[in-house]
TrEMBL record:
Compositionally biased intervals (Basic and acidic residues): 262-277, 413-425
Domain of life the protein comes from: Bacteria
Keywords on record: ATP-binding, Kinase, Nucleotide-binding, Transferase
This protein's name: Carbohydrate kinase
Biased composition (Acidic residues): 393-411
A molecular function GO annotation: ATP binding
Low complexity: bias regions: 292-302
CDD domains (alphabetical): KdgK
Source organism of the structure: Streptomyces tubercidicus
Family matches, as Pfam families: PfkB
Span of domain Carbohydrate kinase PfkB: 28-260, 303-362
UniProt region (Disordered), positions on chain: 1-25, 262-302, 387-425
Assigned protein family: Belongs to the carbohydrate kinase PfkB family.
Amino acid sequence: MTRPSNTGGGPAPDDVPVPDGGPAPDVDVVCLGESMVTFLPRLPGRLADIPSFDRAIGGAESNVACTLARTGHSTRWISRVGTDGFGDHLLAAIADCGVDVGHVRRDPLRPTGVYFRTAGDRATDTHEVAYYRTGSAASAMTAADLDPAALHTGRILHLSGITAALSADCLGLLRELTARRPGRPLVSFDVNYRPGLWRDPAQARVLLELARGADLVFVGDDEARDAWGLHGPRAIREALPEAHTVVVKQGRDGATVFRRTREPRGLTREPVGRTRESGGLMREPGGRRDAATATGSATDTDTDTATFVPALRVGLVAATGAGDAFAAGFLSATLRGLPDRTRLRYGHLWAAAALTVPGDLATPPSRPYADRLAALDDPAWERLHLAPGWTDADADADADPEAEPDADPDSDTSGRRADEEVPTQ
Protein backbone atom coordinates (compact mmCIF):
# COMPACT_ATOMS: atom_id res chain seq x y z
CA MET A 1 0.00 0.00 0.00
CA THR A 2 1.13 3.52 -0.65
CA ARG A 3 1.62 5.73 2.32
CA PRO A 4 -0.19 9.07 1.91
CA SER A 5 1.91 12.15 1.68
CA ASN A 6 1.52 14.74 4.41
CA THR A 7 -0.80 17.23 2.75
CA GLY A 8 0.42 20.02 4.97
CA GLY A 9 3.91 19.99 3.51
CA GLY A 10 5.56 19.59 6.94
CA PRO A 11 6.10 16.90 9.55
CA ALA A 12 3.15 14.72 10.45
CA PRO A 13 1.26 16.16 13.43
CA ASP A 14 1.76 14.30 16.69
CA ASP A 15 -1.99 13.91 17.29
CA VAL A 16 -2.59 12.00 14.02
CA PRO A 17 -0.44 8.95 14.72
CA VAL A 18 0.65 6.35 12.22
CA PRO A 19 -0.97 3.18 13.64
CA ASP A 20 1.52 1.11 15.64
CA GLY A 21 1.30 -2.47 14.45
CA GLY A 22 -1.59 -1.72 12.09
CA PRO A 23 -1.62 -1.38 8.31
CA ALA A 24 0.09 1.63 6.76
CA PRO A 25 -2.41 4.41 5.91
CA ASP A 26 -3.31 4.74 2.25
CA VAL A 27 -5.76 7.67 2.53
CA ASP A 28 -6.02 10.70 4.78
CA VAL A 29 -9.58 10.18 6.05
CA VAL A 30 -12.06 7.29 5.97
CA CYS A 31 -15.70 8.26 6.62
CA LEU A 32 -18.38 5.69 7.45
CA GLY A 33 -22.11 6.40 7.52
CA GLU A 34 -25.35 6.71 5.58
CA SER A 35 -25.79 9.11 2.71
CA MET A 36 -29.17 9.85 1.16
CA VAL A 37 -30.58 11.46 -1.92
CA THR A 38 -31.93 14.87 -0.95
CA PHE A 39 -34.79 16.72 -2.59
CA LEU A 40 -34.54 20.49 -2.22
CA PRO A 41 -37.52 22.77 -2.95
CA ARG A 42 -37.32 25.13 -5.89
CA LEU A 43 -39.63 27.56 -4.07
CA PRO A 44 -40.23 28.40 -0.41
CA GLY A 45 -43.27 26.97 1.30
CA ARG A 46 -44.63 23.90 3.05
CA LEU A 47 -43.90 20.43 1.74
CA ALA A 48 -47.63 20.10 1.09
CA ASP A 49 -47.50 23.04 -1.32
CA ILE A 50 -44.14 22.64 -3.09
CA PRO A 51 -44.67 21.26 -6.62
CA SER A 52 -41.08 20.56 -7.66
CA PHE A 53 -37.69 19.78 -6.18
CA ASP A 54 -34.06 19.65 -7.21
CA ARG A 55 -32.08 16.52 -6.46
CA ALA A 56 -28.89 16.59 -4.38
CA ILE A 57 -27.05 14.36 -1.93
CA GLY A 58 -26.72 14.58 1.84
CA GLY A 59 -25.15 12.63 4.65
CA ALA A 60 -22.96 13.78 7.52
CA GLU A 61 -20.02 11.49 6.84
CA SER A 62 -20.08 11.67 3.04
CA ASN A 63 -20.34 15.46 3.33
CA VAL A 64 -17.08 15.45 5.30
CA ALA A 65 -15.42 13.12 2.78
CA CYS A 66 -16.54 15.21 -0.21
CA THR A 67 -15.53 18.52 1.35
CA LEU A 68 -12.06 17.24 2.25
CA ALA A 69 -11.60 15.68 -1.19
CA ARG A 70 -12.45 18.97 -2.90
CA THR A 71 -9.42 20.55 -1.26
CA GLY A 72 -6.94 17.84 -2.15
CA HIS A 73 -7.15 15.39 0.75
CA SER A 74 -7.49 11.70 -0.08
CA THR A 75 -10.74 10.31 1.34
CA ARG A 76 -12.80 7.12 1.31
CA TRP A 77 -16.52 6.74 2.04
CA ILE A 78 -17.81 3.39 3.35
CA SER A 79 -21.51 2.57 3.48
CA ARG A 80 -24.32 0.48 1.97
CA VAL A 81 -26.74 1.66 -0.70
CA GLY A 82 -29.49 -0.07 -2.65
CA THR A 83 -29.14 -1.40 -6.17
CA ASP A 84 -31.70 1.23 -7.19
CA GLY A 85 -31.17 4.37 -9.25
CA PHE A 86 -30.79 6.49 -6.12
CA GLY A 87 -27.85 4.31 -5.07
CA ASP A 88 -26.33 4.77 -8.53
CA HIS A 89 -26.71 8.53 -8.19
CA LEU A 90 -25.12 8.65 -4.74
CA LEU A 91 -22.09 6.67 -5.83
CA ALA A 92 -21.60 8.75 -8.97
CA ALA A 93 -22.05 12.10 -7.18
CA ILE A 94 -19.72 11.26 -4.29
CA ALA A 95 -17.09 9.76 -6.60
CA ASP A 96 -17.31 12.91 -8.72
CA CYS A 97 -16.05 14.87 -5.68
CA GLY A 98 -12.89 12.75 -5.72
CA VAL A 99 -13.89 10.31 -2.96
CA ASP A 100 -13.01 6.60 -3.12
CA VAL A 101 -16.35 4.73 -3.15
CA GLY A 102 -14.91 1.35 -4.08
CA HIS A 103 -15.79 -0.20 -0.72
CA VAL A 104 -19.48 0.77 -0.65
CA ARG A 105 -21.69 -2.34 -0.59
CA ARG A 106 -24.80 -2.65 -2.80
CA ASP A 107 -27.87 -4.20 -1.17
CA PRO A 108 -30.44 -5.79 -3.54
CA LEU A 109 -33.04 -6.18 -0.78
CA ARG A 110 -33.09 -2.72 0.82
CA PRO A 111 -33.53 0.75 -0.68
CA THR A 112 -31.28 3.78 -0.62
CA GLY A 113 -32.54 6.38 1.86
CA VAL A 114 -34.08 9.64 0.62
CA TYR A 115 -35.37 12.78 2.28
CA PHE A 116 -37.24 15.95 1.43
CA ARG A 117 -36.83 19.28 3.16
CA THR A 118 -38.10 22.82 2.97
CA ALA A 119 -36.00 25.95 2.66
CA GLY A 120 -36.70 27.18 6.20
CA ASP A 121 -34.06 27.40 8.92
CA ARG A 122 -33.67 24.03 10.67
CA ALA A 123 -33.85 25.76 14.05
CA THR A 124 -37.31 27.22 13.42
CA ASP A 125 -40.82 25.80 13.23
CA THR A 126 -40.98 26.68 9.53
CA HIS A 127 -38.43 24.00 8.64
CA GLU A 128 -39.81 20.62 7.57
CA VAL A 129 -37.88 17.44 6.88
CA ALA A 130 -39.39 14.15 5.76
CA TYR A 131 -37.00 11.18 6.01
CA TYR A 132 -37.55 7.88 4.22
CA ARG A 133 -34.69 5.85 5.68
CA THR A 134 -36.29 3.19 7.92
CA GLY A 135 -35.09 -0.18 6.68
CA SER A 136 -32.59 1.44 4.33
CA ALA A 137 -29.55 -0.38 3.01
CA ALA A 138 -27.28 1.63 5.29
CA SER A 139 -29.25 0.61 8.39
CA ALA A 140 -28.09 -2.98 7.78
CA MET A 141 -24.38 -2.17 8.09
CA THR A 142 -22.46 -4.53 10.38
CA ALA A 143 -18.79 -5.09 11.05
CA ALA A 144 -19.06 -8.58 9.53
CA ASP A 145 -19.69 -7.38 5.98
CA LEU A 146 -17.22 -4.47 5.88
CA ASP A 147 -13.60 -4.71 4.80
CA PRO A 148 -11.40 -4.13 7.89
CA ALA A 149 -8.45 -3.00 5.78
CA ALA A 150 -10.57 -0.36 4.05
CA LEU A 151 -11.81 0.90 7.43
CA HIS A 152 -8.47 1.09 9.18
CA THR A 153 -6.07 2.31 6.49
CA GLY A 154 -6.83 5.98 6.88
CA ARG A 155 -4.91 8.39 9.06
CA ILE A 156 -8.29 9.38 10.51
CA LEU A 157 -11.52 7.37 10.78
CA HIS A 158 -14.49 9.76 10.96
CA LEU A 159 -17.80 8.60 12.44
CA SER A 160 -21.10 10.19 13.46
CA GLY A 161 -23.73 9.59 16.11
CA ILE A 162 -26.38 9.50 13.39
CA THR A 163 -25.19 6.01 12.43
CA ALA A 164 -25.76 4.75 15.98
CA ALA A 165 -29.44 5.70 15.76
CA LEU A 166 -30.16 3.81 12.52
CA SER A 167 -30.36 0.28 13.95
CA ALA A 168 -29.02 -2.07 16.60
CA ASP A 169 -26.57 -3.41 14.02
CA CYS A 170 -25.24 0.08 13.31
CA LEU A 171 -24.88 0.82 17.02
CA GLY A 172 -22.92 -2.41 17.43
CA LEU A 173 -20.69 -1.40 14.53
CA LEU A 174 -19.90 1.97 16.11
CA ARG A 175 -19.18 0.34 19.46
CA GLU A 176 -16.64 -1.89 17.75
CA LEU A 177 -15.04 0.98 15.83
CA THR A 178 -14.71 3.19 18.93
CA ALA A 179 -13.24 0.41 21.10
CA ARG A 180 -9.70 1.36 22.04
CA ARG A 181 -7.17 -1.07 20.61
CA PRO A 182 -3.56 -0.91 19.39
CA GLY A 183 -3.03 -0.04 15.75
CA ARG A 184 -6.27 1.82 15.13
CA PRO A 185 -6.24 5.17 13.31
CA LEU A 186 -7.20 8.38 15.05
CA VAL A 187 -10.97 8.10 15.59
CA SER A 188 -12.98 11.27 15.03
CA PHE A 189 -16.59 11.29 16.30
CA ASP A 190 -19.19 13.97 15.59
CA VAL A 191 -22.00 13.53 18.12
CA ASN A 192 -24.63 14.83 15.66
CA TYR A 193 -27.51 14.36 18.09
CA ARG A 194 -30.81 14.30 16.15
CA PRO A 195 -33.76 14.09 18.56
CA GLY A 196 -36.05 12.80 15.81
CA LEU A 197 -33.89 9.69 15.40
CA TRP A 198 -34.09 8.69 19.07
CA ARG A 199 -37.56 7.54 20.14
CA ASP A 200 -36.47 7.46 23.77
CA PRO A 201 -34.28 10.49 24.57
CA ALA A 202 -32.64 8.51 27.40
CA GLN A 203 -31.16 6.14 24.80
CA ALA A 204 -29.16 9.03 23.36
CA ARG A 205 -26.79 8.77 26.32
CA VAL A 206 -25.14 5.99 24.35
CA LEU A 207 -23.61 8.81 22.33
CA LEU A 208 -21.57 9.74 25.41
CA GLU A 209 -20.28 6.18 25.62
CA LEU A 210 -19.24 6.29 21.95
CA ALA A 211 -17.65 9.73 22.31
CA ARG A 212 -15.53 8.46 25.20
CA GLY A 213 -14.04 5.89 22.85
CA ALA A 214 -12.97 8.51 20.31
CA ASP A 215 -9.73 10.46 20.11
CA LEU A 216 -11.33 13.61 18.66
CA VAL A 217 -14.93 14.62 19.49
CA PHE A 218 -17.13 17.32 17.93
CA VAL A 219 -20.20 18.30 19.95
CA GLY A 220 -22.50 21.31 20.16
CA ASP A 221 -23.14 22.72 23.61
CA ASP A 222 -26.87 22.45 22.83
CA GLU A 223 -26.45 18.76 21.93
CA ALA A 224 -24.59 18.07 25.18
CA ARG A 225 -27.31 19.85 27.14
CA ASP A 226 -30.22 18.04 25.46
CA ALA A 227 -28.68 14.56 25.22
CA TRP A 228 -26.49 14.43 28.31
CA GLY A 229 -27.68 17.21 30.65
CA LEU A 230 -24.29 18.94 30.53
CA HIS A 231 -23.89 22.72 30.57
CA GLY A 232 -20.89 24.64 29.29
CA PRO A 233 -17.62 23.70 27.58
CA ARG A 234 -15.74 22.84 30.77
CA ALA A 235 -18.44 20.39 31.94
CA ILE A 236 -18.43 18.76 28.52
CA ARG A 237 -14.67 18.36 28.59
CA GLU A 238 -14.79 16.85 32.08
CA ALA A 239 -17.33 14.28 30.86
CA LEU A 240 -14.96 13.22 28.06
CA PRO A 241 -11.58 12.80 29.79
CA GLU A 242 -10.56 9.93 27.52
CA ALA A 243 -10.65 12.00 24.32
CA HIS A 244 -7.38 13.63 23.31
CA THR A 245 -9.24 16.54 21.67
CA VAL A 246 -12.78 17.85 22.30
CA VAL A 247 -14.29 20.57 20.12
CA VAL A 248 -17.32 22.29 21.68
CA LYS A 249 -19.41 24.34 19.24
CA GLN A 250 -21.09 27.22 21.06
CA GLY A 251 -23.59 28.52 18.53
CA ARG A 252 -23.39 32.23 17.82
CA ASP A 253 -20.50 32.65 20.24
CA GLY A 254 -17.96 30.43 18.51
CA ALA A 255 -16.16 27.22 19.41
CA THR A 256 -13.68 25.98 22.00
CA VAL A 257 -11.15 23.20 21.52
CA PHE A 258 -9.69 21.34 24.48
CA ARG A 259 -6.54 19.40 23.68
CA ARG A 260 -4.37 17.30 25.93
CA THR A 261 -0.64 17.93 25.60
CA ARG A 262 2.35 16.29 27.25
CA GLU A 263 4.85 18.34 29.24
CA PRO A 264 7.98 17.37 31.19
CA ARG A 265 7.21 15.99 34.63
CA GLY A 266 7.47 18.62 37.34
CA LEU A 267 6.95 21.59 35.00
CA THR A 268 4.48 24.02 36.55
CA ARG A 269 2.50 26.49 34.50
CA GLU A 270 0.62 29.41 35.94
CA PRO A 271 -3.13 29.26 35.25
CA VAL A 272 -3.97 32.01 32.78
CA GLY A 273 -7.00 33.27 30.94
CA ARG A 274 -5.36 33.17 27.55
CA THR A 275 -4.03 30.05 25.92
CA ARG A 276 -0.34 30.14 25.19
CA GLU A 277 -1.03 29.22 21.59
CA SER A 278 -3.89 31.43 20.49
CA GLY A 279 -4.30 34.26 22.94
CA GLY A 280 -8.02 33.53 22.84
CA LEU A 281 -10.26 33.82 25.88
CA MET A 282 -12.78 31.25 26.94
CA ARG A 283 -16.36 32.30 26.38
CA GLU A 284 -19.27 30.64 28.11
CA PRO A 285 -22.76 30.45 26.54
CA GLY A 286 -24.47 33.83 26.42
CA GLY A 287 -21.49 35.64 25.00
CA ARG A 288 -19.67 36.34 28.27
CA ARG A 289 -15.90 36.25 27.98
CA ASP A 290 -14.19 34.82 31.04
CA ALA A 291 -10.52 34.88 31.96
CA ALA A 292 -10.88 31.19 32.71
CA THR A 293 -7.98 28.90 33.44
CA ALA A 294 -6.72 27.71 30.09
CA THR A 295 -4.82 24.71 31.38
CA GLY A 296 -5.63 22.04 33.90
CA SER A 297 -3.61 19.06 35.05
CA ALA A 298 -4.81 15.71 33.72
CA THR A 299 -1.86 13.74 35.18
CA ASP A 300 1.58 14.66 36.44
CA THR A 301 2.68 15.18 32.83
CA ASP A 302 -0.52 15.91 30.88
CA THR A 303 -2.06 19.33 30.49
CA ASP A 304 -5.31 20.39 28.88
CA THR A 305 -5.15 23.53 26.76
CA ALA A 306 -8.36 25.37 25.88
CA THR A 307 -8.59 27.65 22.85
CA PHE A 308 -11.64 29.72 21.89
CA VAL A 309 -12.30 31.31 18.47
CA PRO A 310 -15.40 33.46 17.84
CA ALA A 311 -17.86 32.56 15.09
CA LEU A 312 -18.08 34.46 11.82
CA ARG A 313 -21.05 36.40 10.47
CA VAL A 314 -22.34 35.20 7.11
CA GLY A 315 -25.17 35.91 4.69
CA LEU A 316 -27.33 32.85 5.27
CA VAL A 317 -28.69 30.90 2.30
CA ALA A 318 -29.48 27.57 4.01
CA ALA A 319 -28.59 26.36 7.50
CA THR A 320 -27.71 22.79 6.48
CA GLY A 321 -24.41 21.02 6.19
CA ALA A 322 -22.50 23.60 8.23
CA GLY A 323 -21.63 21.25 11.07
CA ASP A 324 -20.18 18.72 8.64
CA ALA A 325 -18.20 21.44 6.88
CA PHE A 326 -16.91 22.69 10.25
CA ALA A 327 -15.67 19.19 11.09
CA ALA A 328 -14.05 18.86 7.66
CA GLY A 329 -12.24 22.18 8.04
CA PHE A 330 -10.97 21.25 11.49
CA LEU A 331 -9.81 17.84 10.25
CA SER A 332 -8.03 19.40 7.28
CA ALA A 333 -6.05 21.70 9.55
CA THR A 334 -5.39 18.80 11.94
CA LEU A 335 -3.92 16.72 9.11
CA ARG A 336 -1.61 19.63 8.35
CA GLY A 337 -0.49 19.90 11.98
CA LEU A 338 -1.69 23.50 12.29
CA PRO A 339 -2.20 25.24 15.69
CA ASP A 340 -5.49 24.90 17.53
CA ARG A 341 -6.64 28.43 16.76
CA THR A 342 -6.08 27.82 13.04
CA ARG A 343 -7.96 24.52 13.24
CA LEU A 344 -10.99 26.30 14.67
CA ARG A 345 -10.74 29.11 12.14
CA TYR A 346 -10.62 26.57 9.33
CA GLY A 347 -13.77 25.01 10.77
CA HIS A 348 -15.54 28.37 10.84
CA LEU A 349 -14.43 29.26 7.30
CA TRP A 350 -15.52 25.98 5.77
CA ALA A 351 -18.83 26.15 7.62
CA ALA A 352 -19.34 29.66 6.24
CA ALA A 353 -18.96 28.22 2.75
CA ALA A 354 -21.73 25.67 3.49
CA LEU A 355 -24.08 28.28 4.95
CA THR A 356 -23.87 30.44 1.83
CA VAL A 357 -25.07 27.78 -0.65
CA PRO A 358 -28.53 26.13 -0.92
CA GLY A 359 -27.49 22.46 -0.56
CA ASP A 360 -25.56 20.41 1.98
CA LEU A 361 -22.27 20.60 0.06
CA ALA A 362 -20.13 23.61 -0.77
CA THR A 363 -16.68 23.96 -2.22
CA PRO A 364 -14.52 25.44 0.54
CA PRO A 365 -12.08 28.27 -0.11
CA SER A 366 -8.75 27.34 -1.66
CA ARG A 367 -5.98 26.54 0.78
CA PRO A 368 -4.01 29.77 0.14
CA TYR A 369 -7.17 31.87 0.58
CA ALA A 370 -8.20 30.02 3.76
CA ASP A 371 -4.67 30.33 5.13
CA ARG A 372 -4.75 34.08 4.50
CA LEU A 373 -8.08 34.51 6.28
CA ALA A 374 -7.09 32.22 9.14
CA ALA A 375 -3.97 34.33 9.72
CA LEU A 376 -5.93 37.58 10.26
CA ASP A 377 -5.45 39.29 13.61
CA ASP A 378 -8.33 39.07 16.08
CA PRO A 379 -9.98 42.44 15.26
CA ALA A 380 -9.88 41.70 11.51
CA TRP A 381 -11.32 38.22 12.09
CA GLU A 382 -14.22 39.60 14.10
CA ARG A 383 -14.98 42.14 11.34
CA LEU A 384 -15.40 39.46 8.69
CA HIS A 385 -18.88 39.23 7.19
CA LEU A 386 -19.00 36.64 4.41
CA ALA A 387 -21.66 36.74 1.69
CA PRO A 388 -22.89 34.14 -0.80
CA GLY A 389 -20.17 33.60 -3.38
CA TRP A 390 -17.39 34.71 -1.03
CA THR A 391 -15.25 31.66 -1.81
CA ASP A 392 -15.00 32.85 -5.44
CA ALA A 393 -13.06 35.88 -4.25
CA ASP A 394 -9.94 33.80 -3.91
CA ALA A 395 -9.59 33.95 -7.69
CA ASP A 396 -8.57 37.58 -7.14
CA ALA A 397 -5.31 37.68 -5.20
CA ASP A 398 -6.08 41.22 -4.08
CA ALA A 399 -9.63 40.50 -2.89
CA ASP A 400 -10.28 41.85 0.60
CA PRO A 401 -12.86 39.71 2.45
CA GLU A 402 -13.18 42.08 5.41
CA ALA A 403 -16.34 44.07 5.96
CA GLU A 404 -15.71 47.79 5.97
CA PRO A 405 -15.86 49.25 9.51
CA ASP A 406 -18.62 51.66 8.52
CA ALA A 407 -20.56 49.20 6.38
CA ASP A 408 -24.25 48.56 6.84
CA PRO A 409 -24.36 45.90 9.60
CA ASP A 410 -26.95 43.96 7.61
CA SER A 411 -24.87 43.85 4.43
CA ASP A 412 -22.19 41.43 3.43
CA THR A 413 -18.66 42.24 2.31
CA SER A 414 -19.77 42.98 -1.24
CA GLY A 415 -22.37 45.48 -0.03
CA ARG A 416 -25.37 43.23 -0.81
CA ARG A 417 -27.99 42.69 1.84
CA ALA A 418 -27.47 39.56 3.93
CA ASP A 419 -30.48 37.41 4.81
CA GLU A 420 -29.29 36.79 8.34
CA GLU A 421 -26.16 36.80 10.43
CA VAL A 422 -25.55 33.30 11.69
CA PRO A 423 -22.82 31.29 13.43
CA THR A 424 -20.55 29.16 11.31
CA GLN A 425 -21.40 25.79 12.83
